[in-house]
Each structure stands twice: as C-alpha cells, then as structure tokens.
Design goal:
The complex is a heterodimer of chains A (about 290) and B (about 300). With about 290 residues, chain A is of the alpha/beta class. Chain A has one domain (about 10-245): Thiamin diphosphate (ThDP)-binding fold, Pyr/PP domains (Rossmann fold). In chain A, about 35% of the residues lie in helices and about 10% in strands. Chain A contains ten helices and five strands, in the order H-H-H-E-H-H-E-H-E-H-H-E-H-E-H. Chain A has helices spanning about 10-30, 40-45, 45-55, 80-90, 130-140, 160-170, 190-195, 200-205, 220-230, 265-275; strands at about 70-75, 150-155, 175-185, 210-215, 240-245. Chain A has a five-stranded parallel beta sheet with strand order 1-2-3-5-4, with helices on both faces. In chain A, helix 6 links the parallel strand 2 and strand 3. Chain B has helices spanning about 5-15, 35-40, 50-60, 75-80, 80-90, 120-125, 135-150, 195-205, 225-230, 250-260, 280-285, 290-309; strands spanning about 20-25, 45, 65-70, 95-100, 130, 155, 175-180, 185-190, 210-215, 215-220, 235-240, 265-270. In chain B, helix 3 (about 50-60) packs parallel to helix 5. The longest helix of chain B has 18 residues, at about 290-309. Classes of the chains: A alpha/beta (about 290), B alpha/beta (about 300). At the A-B interface, helix 5 and helix 6 of A face helix 3 and helix 5 of B.
Chain lengths: ~290, ~300
C-alpha cells in the first residue's frame, strides 16, 4: 500500500475525479436493458473510488493474501459502482460489465464472489457488519494488521441486526473494523428521516461505542481526512458517516426518491452520460421509478 | 458401558488438535462452561445476538475457521434463519450450528422454546447437513466427523445417557440398524430412540417382529436403510419429537416417492401441535410418546390392517 499522503495534491485529486467519472459512466451504462439500482450506485461511487485507490491494502495481485484489507458492500444493490471500480482497477476485465444480467456471467443486481475482488455476497440488508466482525476477529486472532471496511446504506440502518452488530463490535473492541455509511438520505421510496429517522446518527453511533467521523462523501480531501488515521480511537471500531447525494454527478438524477432503480432506454443513457460529462440536462420526461 | 466424555470435553479435545476450530455462543453457556477459559480468544460470546453470531461465524469461516456455534435450537434456527441460509448456506461455509434443548428437551419452557420444526427448516437449506444424535455417546462419537466435514451442519444437542447399546460406528449419512427382524419397521432418531427401543421389546413380547433403524443423520439421509426397511416390512412407523411435517415422516415420503414405494405408514410425532410444557417423563406420558403408548399405537395400526384385510 502506498502511504496515505497528508494532503491531496491537485494532480492526485484530478486522477481520482477522472476515475470516479469513469465509474459513474459504467454505472449509467448498466442502467439499461434491465436496469440497475442507479441512485445508490452514484452516491457511493466516490467512496469506493477513494477507498480502493487510496486506503485499501488490496490489489488484483493480493486477492489470496490473508493480510489484505477487506471491503464488504453490505447494502449490495449499489454494486454497479463496485463492479465498475474493480474493473477499472484491473480486478477483472471491464468487458465483463457487458455481461450485466446475462446468464453467461454472474454480473447481476447484487454482489457475489464470482467477480474477483468481491469478498462476500450481499443483497439482504443488515448482514455484512456481522460478517465483517467475524473477519476482523480472525485477523486479530492471527495478529494481523489488516482492516475490514463495511459499506452500509443509511436505509439499511433500519435493520435491527445492524444495531446488534454495532454493539458486538464495540464489545469486542474491534478497532480493525470500519463502518462507512453512505448517508444519501433516501431509501427505496422516501427520505430516511420521514420513514424511520436516524438522526442524530453520529451521536447514536458514538453511544453504541464507536468513534464516529462525519464527512462529505463526495469530497476527496474530506475522505482523505476521514481515513488517514485509523482507528479513530484505539480499542474502538470506527464509523464514517459520509454525507452523499443519491444520483450524484448527474443533475437529472440527483436527490430524487424516484431514481432508486432505473431502466433507461439506450438514448436516455446516452443523454445521461453526456450530462455526466458536463453536457445539457438529459431532460428525462417519463416517471423514473421502476418498481422492484 | 464406559462413560462418555462430556460434549465440552470432546469439543475441547478436538479444538486442541485443530487450531481452526473456534467456539461461539449467544450467551448459552450451560454445556460449554469450561470453554472460555480453555480456548481464550478462540471462544466468543456475542451476547444474546443470534443473527450477529451466525454472520460473524460466516466471516470467521471465510478466513478458514470452522466455527462451532451454540444457542437454543429455536432461536438459532428461527431467529437467525435468514443469516444461516444466506451467509452460511449460500456459500456453503463450514459453520457448525449446535442447537440446545431441541424437540422435547425444552421440557417446561413452553412453545417459545420448542424446536419442533428445526429439522424441516435446516434441511430446506441446500447443502446443510442435519444430525440428530440420540444421546451423549452418539453426539460425542459423531462430533469428529461432523466438525471435519467441509459442509455447514446443524446438530440437535443432547446430553442424555445412552438410549441403547450402540452397535455401529457413526458415519455421515449412515443409519444404525439396531434390530433387523422383518415385520414392523420403526424409523427414528434422537430423544425418542430409547422409548422406541423399549416399544420394540414390548412388541416382540406380543409376537411382532421389529426392525429398528436409528437414522442419526437426517441430511444426508441413509436412503438405502429406509428403502430396505420399507421393502421388508408390512408397516413403517416414524417416531420423532418434531412436527409431523418436514421431519423424518416427510423424508420417508420423499424417499418412497423417489423409489416408487407406497408402504403403510404411521407417523408418531407432535402432529401440528406444540406439546404440553412439563418435565420430560410427564411430557412423554401426556403426548402419548412413552414406549407403552407407542407399542399400543403400533398394535392398533396392525389390528386395523388385519381388520381391513
């Protein structure tokens, strides 16, 4: 792993931004011919790009290395961003993304270990913080210094099993465990605060025995600060609440509850990709929400 | 009869040989009291969090551990069911789930604690092995093979004294044939094996020859032993402390369908009802599961058959 720099030099930030842009474009291109969960994919793209390129001690060459860092995508349906990040970083050929939803490969709506770099399957909410605890425990048992990062959705925090696992991780003093909450404020149909309010979320996480940092999940300098020194406090697991925007990067999709799952036409995807790259609004006319 | 080591002793002996074994519990320590001290950091009590325990066990297993996980059978198999099915079952990880007080062994706890559908739900998970030892001796004898298997497994825990004199070594997927006369075939497992064997003696005294099959392993099941029993008997009886649906009676039905067999069958089980909470001997009496009642029910079935003939 390259040491995390104390500050993000401009060239470094531009490199990350360029990678994030490519990841978002892949996500948009997966949102057709059956579609995908586009909203969350775009909200967590910067998080995954930053973690995989600047924080995680993992690479295609190290996949069998027990000393690697682990990232578990717990909410799962944001997997297009993970597929795209892994493909861009060489974990598997980007051509596999063209097999999206085809029976000839295993590139479907939730993560699975058929894709190199995916450490554990998910799709059912509220599971992988517990699985992460098991991995972190084994790392500690073996005296390892590697870490486990679990990316959680904020809607996913509705699940009681998350709060159970938060308690257990704190009780076990797992300071090699990091929970990253993609706090985009929306769940499938509505705002989290309208359905099952989570705030004050950082205070809740602290009260459960975690050290909590709150950052702008789209700011690489912020993410650098959040992950530069881990754990945030010795003997405590670390939570990073990353405030994000659903649909980030494409104004036509941003912050909209009805852009959770989308199945766009090829023409719409082309317009959205142009919008992502700074062009005019895609001007989507039809209702966005595809019921899943 | 030599005394068996306790489950805990057997588990610790295996853990001493095999570094990858780790032991987890959701605060059910009654039968593993010495494990925390003996295993140190290889023991984990998560508190009353069955879901997190099973998820953590899956995480330990992907790192190469074989977690042996303990909780009361109902809460383990039902509270954490989706974690078992999703995190352990889908990837087929070698997590060993040990359910305390299964079946009738919950005694006076009441229906919340009555695991009478655990065999049904666990064997519904593809690749999950299901073991139902009749007594401590059988559990301890089976433990090395269960823990050595690369498959996920569910084990009905028992500390009962030997129900019978066991005659065959344990092997996964093999039944134990305890009596081999042709007439009535009794298929059973677990806590009711002792009553079933005593019922066999009573039936023998009435001139009814009995084949007694102790299944032990319900998934994989010894299909050959079941088919042989059906082919050699005029009446097949399943005896189990489980609901009628989803347990051995269902396994028998599936096996018969697969082999084109249509035997006359009596299922002696809990039907579709929770049992009256009480101490075990009183439960057996109340639910008609004593050796005497089992023998009577089999004789009734035979008489009815004769009356129809």
């Amino acid at each position: 792993m390259s040491a995390v720099p104390a500050v993000l030099v401009p060239g470094d930030e531009r490199e990350l931004e360029a990678l994030a842009l490519r990841v978002r474009e892949h996500c948009l291109r997966l949102a057709t011919a059956g579609g995908c969960f586009i909203g969350a994919s775009l909200s967590c793209a910067d998080l995954l790009v930053y973690l995989y390129s600047r924080v995680l001690r993992v690479s295609p060459a190290r996949l069998g290395d027990p000393g690697r860092d682990y990232l578990l995508l717990s909410k799962g349906h944001d997997v297009p961003a993970l597929y795209a990040t892994l493909a861009e970083l060489g974990f598997f050929p980007a051509e596999r993304l063209r097999q999206h939803l085809k029976t000839s490969d295993s590139v479907y709506w939730h993560p699975n270990r058929a894709l190199p770099g995916v450490e554990f399957h998910s799709g059912s909410l509220g599971h992988l913080l517990a699985v992460g605890i098991g991995i972190a425990l084994d790392i500690r048992l073996r005296g390892g210094t590697n870490r486990v990062f679990v990316v959680l959705g904020d809607g996913e925090l509705d699940e009681g099993s998350i709060w159970e696992a938060l308690l257990v991780a704190a009780a076990q003093r797992l300071d090699n465990l990091v929970a990253v909450v993609d706090r985009n404020g929306l769940q499938a149909n509505c705002a989290t605060e309208e359905l099952l309010p989570l705030e004050p979320l950082p205070a809740k996480l602290e009260a459960f025995g975690w050290s909590c940092r709150t950052v702008d999940g789209h700011s690489f300098p912020d993410l650098l600060e959040a992950f530069a020194s881990l754990p945030a406090a010795p003997g405590r697991p670390t939570a990073v609440v990353a405030r994000t925007v659903r649909g980030k990067g494409v104004p036509s999709l941003e912050g909209r509850a009805d852009r959770w799952f989308a199945n766009f036409s090829a023409a719409e995807v082309a317009a959205l990709v142009a919008e992502l790259r700074g062009g005019a609004s895609a001007g989507l006319a039809g209702p966005g929400l595809v019921v899943r | 009869m030599s005394a068996s080591p306790s489950y805990e002793q057997a588990l610790l002996a295996l853990a001493a040989e095999r570094d990858e074994l780790v032991v987890l519990t959701a605060e059910n320590r009654a039968h593993i009291r010495g494990v925390p001290q003996a295993l140190g950091p290889r023991f984990l009590d998560v508190g009353i969090c069955e879901q997190t325990m099973v998820g953590a066990a899956a995480g330990l297993a992907v790192r190469g551990r074989t977690p042996v996980v303990h909780a009361l059978a109902t809460f383990l198999t039902l509270r954490a069911f989706e974690f078992i099915r999703t995190d352990v079952g889908i990837p087929g990880l070698p997590v060993k789930l040990v359910g305390f007080v299964p079946g009738l062994l919950s005694e006076a706890n009441g229906p919340t604690h009555q695991a009478l559908d655990d065999v049904a739900v666990m064997r519904a998970i593809p690749g999950m092995q299901v073991f139902c030892p009749a007594d401590l001796e059988e559990l301890v004898t089976a433990l090395p093979a269960i823990l050595a298997s690369p498959a996920p497994a569910y084990v009905r825990y028992t500390a009962a004294p030997a129900a019978v004199t066991h005659v065959e070594p344990f092997a996964i997927g093999k039944a134990e044939l305890l009596a081999r006369e042709d007439g009535v075939a009794i298929l059973t497992y677990g806590t009711l094996l002792g009553e079933a064997d005593k019922a066999r003696v009573r039936l023998a005294a009435r001139g009814v020859p009995v084949r007694l099959v102790n299944l032990r392993s319900l998934e994989p099941v010894d299909e050959e032993a079941i088919v042989d029993a059906v082919r050699c008997s005029e009446l097949v009886v399943t005896i189990e402390d489980h609901f009628h649906r989803g347990g051995l009676h269902t396994i028998l039905a599936e096996t018969c369908l697969a082999h084109g067999l249509a035997p006359r069958v009596v299922g002696i089980d809990l039907g579709a009802s929770f049992f009256k909470p009480a101490l075990l001997p009183d439960v057996l009496a109340h639910e008609g599961l004593t050796a005497a009642r089992i023998a009577d029910r089999i004789l009734d079935a035979l008489c009815k058959r004769e009356a129809h003939a």
